[in-house]
Design brief:
PH-domain like, 2 domains, three-stranded antiparallel sheet, about 25% strand, alpha+beta, about 160 residues, four-stranded mixed sheet, 4 helices
Length: about 160
């Protein structure tokens, strides 16, 4: 059977050209369907929004959509964007993380800028190991995370 197909391709170059072209198009379409939607929903990002108190905030969301870092309230959108820029710059440096435990024995961290101001606070974790893993996630994703601006419509914070 394969010999017959091979001899057909060998004798008719137009069929071979069409087959190669058609296979390439199918492969491209398959790749687009499988990976395009996946990347759309799994990319890490800063979500900038305006709270009901008219202040601007950001969340850093990991590839899985989980919130790993949030900001304080900013009085202007530009100040909030500066906060995001500061997170991007400071996130890779381990010395910028303050590892903490709450009174209720939950673990969290603060990310501090060079001037020692807190620029991001983590979510609460049930173990120090999970908190340290959260730090590693922020180190990895923050420098290249995109910014999604949702500040047009005020939303309730938390």
């Amino acid at each position: 059977m394969f010999d017959a197909i091979f001899s057909l391709f060998k004798t008719n170059k137009k069929i071979l050209t069409f087959y190669v072209y058609f296979s390439t198009v199918l492969l491209f379409v398959w790749y687009s369907i499988i990976f395009a939607d996946q990347n759309k929903y799994t990319m890490s990002k800063f979500v900038l929004f305006k709270g009901s108190n008219q202040q601007y905030y950001f969340h850093l969301k990991a590839d899985n959509g989980e919130k790993v870092l949030h900001s304080e309230g900013y009085t202007s959108k530009q100040a909030c964007l500066s906060g995001i820029a500061s997170v991007k710059v400071n996130a890779p440096y381990d010395s910028r993380y303050e590892r903490l435990a709450s009174r209720s024995s939950q673990y969290y961290f603060n990310l501090r800028a060079m001037n020692n101001e807190v620029i991001g606070v983590s979510e609460m974790y049930t173990s120090s190991y999970a908190r340290d893993n959260g730090i590693e996630v922020v180190k990895r994703i923050a420098p290249t995370a995109s910014i999604e601006d949702q500040s047009v419509t005020p939303v309730a914070y938390h």
